[in-house]
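hey so i finaly got around to running the thing on DUF982 domain-containing protein from Marinobacterium aestuariivivens. pasting the sequence first so u can double check i didnt mess up the copy paste, my clipboard has been acting weird all day
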Amino acid sequence: MLPDFRYHYGVMVRRAREGEDLEVPVPMALPDRRDNTLVAFIQRWGDEQGLAPEVAASLLYYLTKPKGSKVRERFRAHAQQEAKEKGLDLELPEDYQ
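ok and heres what it spat out for the 3d tokens, dont ask me to read them lol
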């Protein structure tokens, strides 16, 4: 690996000495076209349950995990337990769509 580095470093140094502009143009980012239906669902669900937005977002965080994954089920079970500990008698939704 060291010989490769030495070669490429030498090329860059030579280009800089010759006055070449070594600035790399920053590529334009793609526009953010993500669907915000989950955010809207969490807000609507929180309003329906009479919960503060941060409580609703905390309880429904598991919906951001891949559907059908063990992680999502574990987070959902934890959120359901947390809801019971807070004295909330509600069933958390499986999905938002």
